[in-house]
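Re: the request from the purification team.
They wanted to know what the chain is likely to look like in 3D before they choose a buffer screen. I agreed to run a prediction and write the result into the notebook, where they can find it.
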Amino acid sequence: MKTTVELPDALFRQAKAVASARGTTLKLFFTEAVEEQLRRSSKGNGRVDNGDPPWMAGFGALADLSDETDRILKLIEEEFERVAPEDLP
């Protein structure tokens, strides 16, 4: 489907430059950008009203990092539990 979208000139030029640098078309660049925003919205990380307070949007985007954070904290804890040879009696 074709549509017309008005963008500020500077934003258009920046989008066109990034698309070109990636070796893709402006059409594909915009399509991927819209798809990404829709994915975020469907996960509750976008700006769609999902009942969360407005300030939560800034933190919700990091929710998928909690498993990685737990993994890193476990590695740190394991490292601190090791006894260095020079500290042995």
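For the purification team: The chain has one domain: 9-82.
Please add any questions underneath this entry.
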